[in-house]
Every structure is written in structure tokens, then in C-alpha cells.
Design brief:
Layout: H1 4-7, H2 18-24, E1 33-39, E2 45-51, H3 53-62, E3 66-69, E4 74-77, E5 86-93, E6 100-106, E7 121-124, E8 127-130
Parallel strand pairs: 1-6
Antiparallel strand pairs: 1-2, 3-4, 5-6, 7-8
């Protein structure tokens, strides 16, 4: 039996079977896991979305990032309609198996507002400020 606690003591290069690994992921009650997309060369955090196991498997096998749309209750292949695709470079699970980091190559803006990323509202103790313009 493999779990994420066991992985803490494993050396670099240790391989884990994908089915075994995904069987240990801590999916939420809806069968989803949060996925943070980060531009692989600059480190810019682009967006946060959700994946279920099938979306993650599709992303890993095709290299085209696929999410689960909670609002539409369907698969969402990033850029399918806009052309602003995300190509997977590397996927990483966190130490608890309850969050994903996707290192991607983003083509065009990541946000549906046509801003470079979805985090364009800076928040402080007095309110919020828009910090980027649509491209």
C-alpha cells in the first residue's frame, strides 16, 4: 500500500505506478482536485481550475490541458474555443495529494477576460484594485 506519507521518505527517482498514485489522490467529495496552472518559463501563476481523474488522465496522455467545468458540468479543454491553449510541460502533486501544479506553455491570455492571468484584482485591507488590462 502506497500513500503520500510513505512517499516522504523515498529518494529522488523513485517511480510510482500511475493507477496506484491516482488511487491515493485526495479528491474532494465531488471527485475533483484543484489545479494551479503556472507558466513554466516565467513562473507566473495563470489560473486555478478543477480536474477530475478523467480530465487529469486526458491531460497527461495528450499534453493538452483539460479541466472539469463545475458550472457547466462538462470537460473544458483550455483554449478549445478561444485558441488560447495550455500545453502541459509537467504535472506535480503536492505532498498531501490534494492539489495539482501544472507547469504549462500558455498560448495567448489565460483568463476568459483576455487578461494574461486570472489574478488581476489585488486585494488589501481597504479593498481591491485592478492591476492588469485585457490583451
Amino acid at each position: 500500500m502506497m500513500d503520500f506519507k510513505t512517499l516522504e521518505n523515498q529518494p529522488i527517482g523513485t517511480r510510482i505506478d500511475l493507477d496506484l498514485l491516482l488511487g491515493q489522490v485526495r479528491w474532494n467529495p465531488d471527485g475533483l482536485i484543484p489545479a494551479i496552472a503556472q507558466q513554466q518559463d516565467t513562473g507566473e501563476v495563470l489560473m486555478l481550475a478543477w480536474m477530475n481523474e478523467q480530465a487529469l488522465r486526458e491531460t497527461l496522455s495528450t499534453g493538452q490541458v483539460c479541466y472539469w467545468s463545475r458550472s457547466r458540468q462538462t470537460y473544458w479543454r483550455k483554449g478549445e474555443s478561444s485558441g488560447h491553449r495550455q500545453r502541459l510541460v509537467e504535472a506535480r502533486l503536492d505532498c498531501d495529494g490534494d492539489a495539482l501544479l501544472l507547469l504549462v506553455n500558455q498560448q495567448g491570455p489565460a483568463c476568459h477576460t483576455y487578461r494574461p492571468n486570472c489574478f488581476y484584482v489585488q486585494v488589501n485591507d481597504t479593498g481591491g484594485t485592478i492591476i492588469s488590462q485585457p490583451e
